[in-house]
Amino acid sequence: MSSKHPCILGDKDVAVLAHSSLFSQMSAGEIEQMVQALGGYTKEYLPTDIICSPNRPFERTGILLSGSLDVTHMSVLGRSAVMHQVRIGQAFGGQANLLEMSIPHAEVVAAQRSRILLFDMRLLFNVSRITQVPIDVRMTFFANLVHAQAQECLQLKRHIRVLAQRSVQGKIAYYLLALAEDAQSKVVTLPFSRSGFASYLCVNRSVLSRELWLMHEAGLIDIKDRRITLSDIDGLIEVIPEAWI
Amino acid sequence: MTNQDIMLCSKTPLFSGLSYEDIQTILTFARARVLDVARGDYVLMAGESDVRTGIVLQGMLSIVSFNHDGAHTITEQIGPLETFAEVMNCLSVDQMPVSVRAKQRSRVMLFDLQRILGLLDSKEFGLARETRIAASISHNTVRLLALKTKRMRERVEVLSKRSTKEKLAAFLLQRAAQMGIDLHQVAGSGPQQSTGSIAIDTGLSRIDLAAMLAVNRSALSRELSRLQQLGVLTYAGQNIQVHNWLALQGEMDEQ
Q1: B247 touches chain A (CB under 8 A)
Q2: CB proximity under 8 Å: B 12-31 to A
Q3: How far is Cα B152 from Cα B134, in angstroms, rounded to an integer?
Q4: Which residues pair with A94 in a beta bridge?
Q5: What mean pLDDT comes out for the span A77-92?
Q6: pLDDT higher for A158 or B38?
Q7: CA B67, CA A212: separation in Å to the nearest integer?
Q8: Region B63-91: what's the mean pLDDT?
């Protein structure tokens, strides 16, 4: 059974929030002020408790303060299940909260005893309520929100371009070139495990390993655990039949 | 900028809930300009440093990217009252990573969304009317970005399928859901199943649909033909009529 508490944020909670993209560049006092203005409260969940499901509208944005959550994506007819985990400090449900809809085809379940901060992002635009917060504080929060959304769009755009490549090597090459561009370096570090990378590219792990080995043999890349050196940039660009942007 | 342009802007998610006068004030402040472009003309060029948010007032645009040997790929199409480049504008990127080209004769409004959002921080912007406008435009901006994210997630969901048939099935199931059709009811057992035939207007030619699904055009045609023979669907031009949603769902190899 879950339990709801008025918003009393401990030092640990504030530290988690200060590292989240939404509350970045804000002091502890400003974070508490903003959370209050957005009607924030904390809620605890036990393992297997359902936080939200397609049949249970979720009119809040959540940030995981402790524990762990599993997200299961359902197809429109209720089948299919691709899972990922919500990390501590990560926000979820913001899009549904802003668009005033339920989280489409997804179920969020507590994987272990978890504590979540819940707040209503729509209150940011409620003039009578939000003006209690100093303008520079709410401007920082607003800028963080827009930046986080725009970054998410950019990441999704990249994921679309990666998945739109027809060959597995094309997907790998596109993703590695994008990482190298971000890092301004020929040496990149994968942010996933090998199976996480396979899942991101939507290919089998064994197929991914084989194609990475073939690319290594062709002199395109050099692999050492998660560190990959792009040995032949032009060769990698040629692997991509779709345009490189 | 004509009255008609401003009226059209009022129908977009970004300017929703704002009056004609409010929109006029905002667009003037955001240095809006309107372009009439012929088919094939560029609205924004890759590498251009003046990154602006755009709204298609009339016509259709394509987002185009070029590869190392100059060949191009169309990655997205932007129809009437849709916005483009707002993500780049919000992130204040130095230059456009892609080009925007008119697919047909079009009328486009370009403006600086970053300048509008900067209004919220302005000391002079404290009067009642301006505060209300600022609250509306900021709310609309985050809603617009949320909507964009939602659409991209849906596209990722389709592209994450591995075969042509899975991608096509996922695309059609998604389109039906976007049309507000309750597929649980349509695909359920009983008489509804036999009468659950629904027409989906894809709005895409066969070439564009293949590009949207990132599949080979002939493989897509083969798949459509196979599903038609099985009685799952029928198709003509840009329309696909699905007769058996459960069978379509069965085409999707669950991951």
Answers
A1: no
A2: none
A3: 27
A4: none
A5: 71
A6: B38
A7: 23
A8: 77
pLDDT band at B191; cut points 50, 70, 90: very low
Three-class HEC string of chain A? CCEEEECCCCHHHHHHHHCCCCCCCCCHHHHHHHHHHCCCEEEEECCCCEEEECCECCCCEEEEEECCEEEEECCCCCCCCEEEEECCCCEECHHHHHHCCCCCCEEEEECCCEEEEEECHHHHHCHHHHCCCCHHHHHHHHHHHHHHHHHHHHHHHHHHHHHHCCCHHHHHHHHHHHHHHHHCCCEEECCCCHHHHHHHHCCCHHHHHHHHHHHHHCCCEEEECCEEEECCHHHHHHHCCCCCC
**Is residue A143 within 8 Å of A186, Cβ to Cβ?**
no
- Among A187-191, A196-200, B94-98, B133-137, the range with the most confident prediction by mean pLDDT is A187-191
CB-nearest to B173 from A75, A166, A244 is: A75
Chain B residues touching A161 at Cβ < 8 A = 75
How close is the nearest chain B Cα to the Cα of A89, in Å?
A: 20
- Going by their DSSP bridges, the two strands B106-111 and B53-58 should be labelled as antiparallel
Residue A16 · residue A89 · CB < 8 Å: yes
- Predicted TM-score (pTM) of this structure: 0.81
| Strands of the sheet with B42-44, listed across from one edge | B42-44, B99-102, B61-66, B72-78
* Residue B131 near chain A (CB below 8 Å): yes
* Inter-chain residue contact B150 with A99, CB threshold 8 Å: yes
Range of weakest confidence among A170-174, B77-81, B173-177 = B173-177
pLDDT at B82: 92
Counted residue by residue, chain B has a size of 255
Phi, psi (degrees; rounded to nearest 5) at A112: -150, 175
Angle between helix B20-29 and helix B128-159 axes, rounded to 10 deg: 80
Residue A118's beta-bridge partner residues?
A41, A62
- ipTM (interface pTM): 0.80
| Helix H or strand E encompassing B241 | strand B239-242
Low-confidence winner among A57-61, B60-64, B110-114 (lowest mean pLDDT): A57-61
Nearest to A23 by CA among A40, A3, A8, A4: A40
Q: Is B175 left (phi over 0), alpha (psi -120 to 50) or beta?
A: alpha
